[in-house]
Amino acid sequence: MRTWIHLLLVLLQVALALAADPSHLVQGLPGQPEVGFKQYAGQIEINATAGRALFYWFFEADHPNASSLPLVLWLTGGPGCSSIGAGALGETGPFSTNDSGTGLVRNPYSWNKAVNLICLEIPYNTGFSYTNLLSDGGNYTDDQTASDTLLFLLEFLTKFPEYKQNDFFIAGESFAGHYIPTLASQIISHNEQNGNRINLKGFAIGNPSTDVDYDGPGNIENLYSHSIISEELYQEEKTYCRRNDDESIARCRNVTSQIQNLIAYITPYNIYAPACNLLSGPDDEACLDSVTPYLNRQDVQAALHVERRPVRWQFCNPDVDRNYSTLDRERSMLPVYQHLFKSGLRIWIYSGDLDAVVSTLSTRSWIKALNLTVVTPWYGWNYTNQVGGWTEVYSEMTFATVRGAGHQPPFDKPGESLTLFQHFIEGKALPSF
């Protein structure tokens, strides 16, 4: 009898060890429709000395086989913009806010239909993530952000050990074009040196900031090709903004000022979308202005286990943006990609073709510079018998456009983006006609 009791106690301890941490279980949010999956949220401390903690919102897959599906980390860029505002509630998560910001509605194209999805606010001082160390406020770098994210992942997998063996992918957009390759490199190094491995299989990035020498000129080409700037201004930019002498620098400032005036009354995140209410405010990304009032409600913050309530949540923190390393902003990611290609990771780059922030032409130019080996030449991919975009498959990676989308394809074209994401996760080429 004692033997059976002892065995039952052991089995109970094992079950508890393999179960998710219940302290962050979200019981329900104000105005939330009923769902059949579990969600967790809260801050996870990654540096006790600095009092540094990162906020996450985790959605288990809305699928009968949720436990066996991949685990995906979603990162928004900025730097300093929230993966909750631009991910969980605006693009890839199962909910979006209603127009008044008083409640939630279901997102029929949520990525948690295919995966278990973590949305993480990085770097610290973004959204609900924080640090107690004042000197941290001027120390935002690619390496520090990646290192903090790696520490978060290790702690997350300690709290949710049932996902340790699942395939793990990273996805994101914009300045996550710096975060994600740097993080992937650090995970590879960690796995080489530690037994506590992260089962990284690949990553996908949309409209990624990658290399200023390609991103900037490509954006100008994009504005010209869409007839937003004149022939004269286009030629002046090419003449004066790619030289370093004093006269050219002065003329370039004038050219840049004229270009800014011409794009002031359109939404650069999607040049064909209606203009936002605020033309250049830091909280104005993609007009998701119903998110801010919702996440600043104390009952919402309590449901999400936010510490130190009430917290003034911002869609983007301008202090993070302002204090992010200039050297890292200008650092090319191309050498990082060349290193990552050797790892055998599945790498997809996708691009909304109406973006004026990181244009498709910018991305195509740096991909061309990598001199990759074409496996499947350029073709239109099929979404419900319409062209979802165009794609080309290389031996090292896949590139795809999302037709009619801007800087945030899951926001502008959610159905096409979910299809693209599912094919990425499954390692399948996008469907042709």
TrEMBL record:
This is Serine carboxypeptidase-like enzyme. InterPro entries: AB_hydrolase_fold, Peptidase_S10. The gene is SCPLa6b-1. PANTHER family: CARBOXYPEPTIDASE (PTHR11802:SF489), SERINE PROTEASE FAMILY S10 SERINE CARBOXYPEPTIDASE (PTHR11802). One of its GO terms (biological process) is proteolysis. Belongs to the peptidase S10 family. GO terms for molecular function: serine-type carboxypeptidase activity. Keywords: Carboxypeptidase, Disulfide bond, Glycoprotein, Hydrolase, Protease, Signal. Residues 1-19 form the signal peptide. Pfam families: Peptidase_S10. It comes from the Eukaryota.
